[in-house]
Amino acid sequence: MSLKPIADIGEFGLIEKIAAICAPTIKPASGVVEGIGDDCAVYEHSPSSVQVATTDILAEHQHFDLLTTPPHHLGSKAISVNVSDICAMNALPRYALISIAMPQNTPVEMVESLYNGMAHAAKLYGTALVGGDTSSSAAGIVISVTLIGETSKENLALRSGASPGDLICVTGALGGAAAGLKVLLREKRIMMDHVQNGEPYNRDIMNNLEEYTEAIQHQLLPSARVDIIEFFHKHQIVPTSMIDISDGLSSDLRHICQQSMVGARIEEGRIPILSQARHIADEFQEDALDYALGGGEDYQLLFTLKPDNFQAIVEHRDITVIGKITPKEEGMTLNDIYGMQIDMKEIRGFDHFT
Amino acid sequence: MSLKPIADIGEFGLIEKIAAICAPTIKPASGVVEGIGDDCAVYEHSPSSVQVATTDILAEHQHFDLLTTPPHHLGSKAISVNVSDICAMNALPRYALISIAMPQNTPVEMVESLYNGMAHAAKLYGTALVGGDTSSSAAGIVISVTLIGETSKENLALRSGASPGDLICVTGALGGAAAGLKVLLREKRIMMDHVQNGEPYNRDIMNNLEEYTEAIQHQLLPSARVDIIEFFHKHQIVPTSMIDISDGLSSDLRHICQQSMVGARIEEGRIPILSQARHIADEFQEDALDYALGGGEDYQLLFTLKPDNFQAIVEHRDITVIGKITPKEEGMTLNDIYGMQIDMKEIRGFDHFT
Predict the structure, then answer these.
(1) How confident is the model at residue A354 (pLDDT cuts 50, 70, 90)?
(2) Which residues make up the binding site for ATP (chains A, B) (predicted)?
(3) Are residues A220 and A300 in the same domain?
(4) Spatial distance between the Cα atoms of B254 and B332, rounded to a whole number of angstroms
């Protein structure tokens, strides 16, 4: 029998197969509103409210590198990326469970620093760290975070509710996380070369990273946009669809288009790009737009709104309208600054298995 | 600075430190009934009900070995051990989230088999597999399962409610999982020797394992005792305390005694031991009692009851009264079949880090 490696079908091919296997367990269960395929699972909580739940697994050498990530930051980021998934449902985070597997020789001080980072972030987001599991692992640290949040049934935002004419909006500025990673990986390479050449420890070989602070912070310490969700609830704004940008604007917009069965047209000139990301892209002779479209890890919110909500958001200095939802037949296009239409199907986001 | 490896403080030392770090996130949160320290976290669900949530992380080479565990069984066990934690709160399972990290060359067929095992078990327990995460890993497969269950406030059973005079009860028969593991590890050793000696594949070198079927099944396919929880609810029995036996009777009884601030006296002769575990122990020239007390992974329920509940359980053929809760000063003792009192402090359970 010849076996097929996951790399052949990719992350999304795998998720499709898993969703098909899990579907028969969902049908007989009462109260499941949304199973696999959105940022969170959704199930009924009370006649008027739903719970949303999400989980993320972070593996050393794949999602983080302790040579470039202080454990305190890693802990904070592990919470933030899950809170971000809760926000993407237009919900607020409530409870978190943390699992960790690590080698027996992991220093206690490192674990404490990791959990201090988690607790710090959890307090900021009003989330209680209520439980978890600890275990040994043969190779590297693996952290799994599960977050449970709540929202009213009217406020719930799925990926599937966008329709032609809706405005496409994004929060904050994009590209910073990818740019920050570029800089950190360059520093790591310099350090590793230094170590491999057997040179003595010398602080001066490290670059002064001050000019990259903002981008590095976007990479190491992203914030979940709980503030935006509170703004929505306060102003009774309910996005017709929403997702958080974890794989890159292009890939995450594609999820909205596929699940809403619509197309999209984006204006390149409107995409908010972190100014430091532009500087870093110049330094690496790359295009900051690629960081925004395909870099991922910005954890900003991408959402669609009925046009009559425009007045409610126009004053918010951290929300930008970048385009419009179109009929499905029109596909996903990007109008570049020279007026050319680019097919966004060609721009790939991050895939864990290919 | 000298750093202290986790092995120095052990699993329970580590959990204490983590609980202290997480405590400040729990205080300001409304509705948390029980944080870290029980089988599940507990938080308010409605004025009359609570939700219970648990998570487990399973790492290849630590918790499972694909040389001795078919992926379908592994999937089923991953669900069962978490459902067992839900049962230990006198609650019923509702929703599960699955995270998995695995190397890119993992065969798709293996992943499908794993999830089929999960879906099969989930259906048996009436649990919906509603979400999860997939990711690549540098070394080995890591599975994390989170389970959410529900129960009424009156039915909730914590570890901390036992008081002197309560009956100590256990479900099923113990020692089978540890005995089954003994047999599987012996088979693996024979197979590895064979492979290392460069001998050609030969089915006949494998033992006929038929006589060990029951013990191997306890190891590979443990069942969570949802049936016992349904029996409790039907007969309005509420254990004063409860835990599931994952680390061994001795270690898990110690958790109840510590958290209830009581002592315990167990009769060796009353401990139900799987008869096949006795046969296997004889073969290995070991004592099946050690498998029951320190072997773990039986996933039976250990609970305490007010004596006036005795009539309600005496007819149940799968519940055995094995002893009594005593005042704290009397410690934890085992009366052996010769009438000797043994201090149970000396009998250690499983610790991931020491």
Answers:
(1) low
(2) 115, 132-133, 159, 246
(3) yes
(4) 8
Domain co-membership, A86 together with A142: yes
Q: Label residue A154 by pLDDT band (50, 70, 90).
A: very high
Residue A109 with chain B: CB contacts under 8 Å? 3-4
Kindly state whether residue A226 falls inside one of the protein's structural domains.
yes
A308 located within any domain: yes
Q: Centre a 10 Å sphere on the Cβ of residue A204 and count the other Cβ atoms it contains.
A: 6
H-run or E-run covering A253: helix A249-260
User: Mean pLDDT throughout A128-141?
Assistant: 89
Evaluate if residue A349 carries a pLDDT over 70. Answer: no
Residues A248 and A331 in one domain: yes
Q: What type of residue sits at position B162?
A: A
- Asked if A236 and A96 sit in the same domain, the reply is no
Helix (H) or strand (E) holding A53: strand A49-59
Please report whether residue B6 resides in a domain: no
Give the closest of A6, A22, A26 to B106, CB-based.
Answer: A6
Domain total for chain B? Answer: 2
Confidence of residue A69 (pLDDT cuts 50, 70, 90): confident
A141/A15 same-domain check:
yes
Name every residue whose Cβ is closer than 8 Å to that of residue B311 and which is 6 or more positions away in sequence: none
B85 is an annotated ligand-binding site residue: yes
What is the number of CB-based contacts under 8 A between chain A and chain B?
299
Contact call for residues A228 and A319 (beta carbons, < 8 A): yes
Whichever domain contains B126, its CATH number is 3.30.1330.10
Say which of B14, B133, B139 has its CB closest to residue A140.
Answer: B139
Residues 6+ apart with CB under 8 A from B132: A18, A36, A55, B97, B98, B99, B100
Coil, strand, or helix at residue B331?
coil
Q: Which two tokens stand for residue A330?
A: 């029109």
Verify that A176 and A138 share a domain, yes or no: no
State whether ipTM is beyond 0.90: no
* Calpha distance A18→B133 (Å, rounded): 10
Return the residue of B nearest to A23 by Cα.
B129
Q: Could you give the 3-state DSSP secondary structure of residue B237?
A: coil
Q: Are A112 and A233 in a shared domain? A: no
Residue A64 lies in a domain: yes
Domain span at residue B44 reads 30-152
Nearest to A246 by CA among A173, A172, A299: A299
Question: What does the pLDDT read at residue B295?
Answer: 85
Residue B230's CATH number: 3.90.650.10
* Average confidence (pLDDT) per 10 residues, chain B, 354 residues: 83 89 84 85 89 93 85 95 97 95 91 96 95 87 94 95 97 95 89 80 70 91 96 96 94 94 96 96 94 92 96 93 96 92 75 60
Instruction: Please name the helix (run of DSSP H) or strand (run of DSSP E) that holds residue B150, with its range, or none.
Output: strand B142-152
Mark whether B103 and B175 lie in a shared domain: no
Which residues of chain A have a CB within 8 Å of the CB of B108?
A: 3-6, 8-9, 14, 17
- Nearest-Cα distance to chain B for A211, in Å, is 31
| Contacting residues for B153 by C-beta, under 8 A, at least 6 apart | B48, B49, B50
Cβ pair A21:B353 closer than 8 A: no
Residues 6+ apart with CB under 8 A from B253: B168, B264, B266, B302, B332, B344
Question: Measured between alpha carbons, how far apart are the two ends of chain B, in Å?
Answer: 23
Nearest residue in chain A measured CA to CA from B2: A107
Nearest residue on chain A to B146, judged by CA atoms?
Answer: A146
Q: Is A57–B142 a contact, with Cβ atoms under 8 angstroms apart?
A: yes
Of A135, A52, A37, give the one whose Cα is nearest residue A93. Answer: A52
Residue with tokens 């799994």: A144
